[in-house]
Design goal:
Blueprint: H1 2-12, H2 19-37, H3 51-61, H4 65-78, H5 88-93, H6 109-141, H7 150-164, E1 169-171, E2 177-179, H8 182-185, H9 201-215, E3 229-230, E4 240-249, E5 255-264, H10 271-280, H11 282-291, E6 300-302, E7 322-324, H12 328-337, H13 345-356, H14 364-372, H15 376-399, E8 405-406, E9 415-416, E10 421-422, E11 450-452, H16 457-473, H17 476-482, H18 484-497, H19 499-506, H20 511-522
């Protein structure tokens, strides 16, 4: 059994393009192996699996998202074995597994603002720190400082930090490291030493939170995102457009790339955050390129424990004291440090996607089924839209329906019009400035005062035929604007009269009816 499971795992691994995916499937396979080992009668190989065993496995896992993921994963692996390609067990494996129910919801606005405020404070503090120390370093390199002054000595230390990624340290006989010039630096913390020119792990995570809120990027995007490049500018001096390359790995599909153009045109523009990110990571990216030529990744920071980074085969390897991207552990630790109750990235991305109302690095189907429909904020916000839409549809239906009354005979007290008899023109929905009704005769059928009796049917049936004839003679926009609603009212009236009676009336159209409708359609007949 172990050999068979290893074989199907190896065969399936050919379609995976990340170590994390392989590791997830491996863990699910271990769960399945433990399930088999706990059975009263353990199968010796895959061919010994029975429908009852597979059903028992399914029953134990179908109720939770984690269990459904296990069912999908193990089913995919087992169906690699030719012995399970057909038969009762194969049919049981092929049973539909419900999609997982999204467990993450978009942030409420108050929650979102709290997360953004926390991230903004930390990143701005880091950017200000790096900016001030960079200005001092540039003045030292330009020779603008008095030799031997405090700023001159600090500039000298900053030059060493920029070249090596660390302050000057000495090693004691016992092997311990001590920071030199501690008094000049003002302390031993990261912000007082190497952090003067480099982002810390927490600073980089804060920057990633802001980028996710602004652009809706996935957490994994930051691991390999190249530093954005400037687009050629046609004489623009106040704006900068960056070209940002986004990589999103898809299972079985290799690597997927897209390019986004983002413009910095001012403090509130999306591109301003890109400008600030480039400034904050400039020293880290320069050092990384010097230590490993060709490496120029945007999300670069300095680790506090060089050489002790956990090995993640899906992420770029650290270069000297530098690491790249934001790990899930970084996200959890950042949230824990700021008491935010869990990694903010999935919820921030959901918030941005639902706020934008369009797919961001995913398909339309994923946008609708995974992000929009399950989101409670969207559901609440949609209630009013649904109500407004229903009222609008009701209003449109009323405007295109026959709103008068069908009567068996003419009433001598009613006034005759070209299309119906009017009960009371003084209460018309379309009153004339000087009193009475100001509506076109074609609108009579939409008025509650209209009365239609069998004597009107031939004329109205002929009117419908003529309006239909205009459809082929006029462009669609013109016809829809002038005649569509009138035709819909005639259609509704025909349904109320009955098709048989309507067709019979069409055969009784008189010459007077034809002349009247002709005048009506040509606009020569005024109310």
């Amino acid at each position: 059994m172990r050999r068979s499971l290893a074989t199907v795992f190896a065969e399936q691994s050919g379609v995976w393009n990340s170590h994390a995916t392989a590791d997830a499937h491996w863990r699910q396979l271990l769960v399945f192996a433990r399930f088999l080992a706990a059975l009263e009668r353990q199968p010796q190989d895959l061919e010994d699996l029975t429908v009852a065993m597979v059903r028992r496995w399914r029953a134990q896992h179908i109720a939770t998202n984690t269990g459904r993921s296990a069912l999908r994963s193990v089913r995919t692996l087992l169906r690699r074995d030719p012995r399970l390609a057909a038969g009762p067990v194969a049919e049981e494996l092929a049973r539909r597994v419900p999609a997982p129910v999204p467990s993450k919801q978009a942030y409420e606005e108050e929650e979102r603002q709290q997360v953004l405020l926390t991230a903004r404070r930390q990143f701005r503090a880091a950017l200000t720190r790096i900016r001030e120390n960079t200005e001092l370093l540039e003045r030292w390199r330009a020779g603008d400082l008095t030799v031997g002054s405090r700023d001159w000595r600090l500039g000298q230390l900053l030059d060493h930090v920029a070249d090596t990624g660390d302050v000057v340290r000495t090693i004691t006989p016992s092997g311990q490291y001590h920071v030199r010039n501690r008094r000049l630096l003002g302390g031993l913390g990261a912000e007082r030493t190497w952090g003067r020119l480099f982002l810390t792990r927490g600073d980089l995570t804060a920057l990633a939170v802001l980028l996710t809120d602004r652009f809706g990027w996935n957490l994994s995007v930051y691991d390999r995102m190249p530093a954005p490049t400037r687009m050629p500018s046609a004489g623009e001096a106040t704006t900068v457009t960056y070209q940002v390359q986004i990589e999103k790995r898809r299972a079985g599909g290799g690597r997927w790339f897209s390019t986004e153009n983002i413009t910095d045109s001012g403090a509130d523009s999306p591109g301003r955050l890109i400008t600030q990110a480039l400034e904050a990571t400039a020293h880290g990216r320069r050092l990384a390129t010097r230590l490993a030529p060709g490496v120029d990744l945007l999300m670069t920071a300095r680790t506090g424990l060089p050489g002790n980074e956990p090995q993640n085969l899906d992420r770029p390897r650290p270069v000297g004291p530098l690491f790249f991207g934001v790990s899930t552990n970084d996200a959890r630790q950042w949230a824990k440090d700021h008491r935010l109750g869990g990694s903010p990235f999935q919820r921030t991305r959901r918030t941005t996607v639902t706020r934008e109302g369009r797919p961001l690095q995913h398909t339309r189907g994923t946008h609708e089924s995974v992000y929009v429909l399950p989101d409670k904020r969207v559901q609440r916000a949609s209630r009013e839209d649904f109500a407004d839409g229903a009222l609008e549809a009701l209003e449109q239906a009323r405007n295109t329906a026959f709103n008068g009354r069908l009567t068996p005979a003419a009433d001598p007290g009613h006034q005759q019009t070209a299309t119906a008899d009017c009960q009371d023109e003084s209460t018309s929905p379309w009153p004339a400035p000087d009193g009475g009704c100001g509506a076109d005769f074609l609108l009579c059928l939409g008025c509650r005062n209209a009365h239609v009796h069998p004597g009107h049917h031939p004329r109205l049936a002929h009117l419908r035929e003529q309006v239909l004839g205009l459809r082929s003679a006029l462009p669609d926009p013109v016809w829809n604007g002038q005649w569509r609603d009138h035709l819909l009212r005639l259609e509704d009236l025909r349904d109320k009269v009955g098709t048989a009676a309507w067709n019979a009336a069409l055969a009784r159209v008189s010459q007077a009816d034809r002349a009247l409708i002709d005048l009506l359609l040509k606009g020569s007949l005024a109310p």
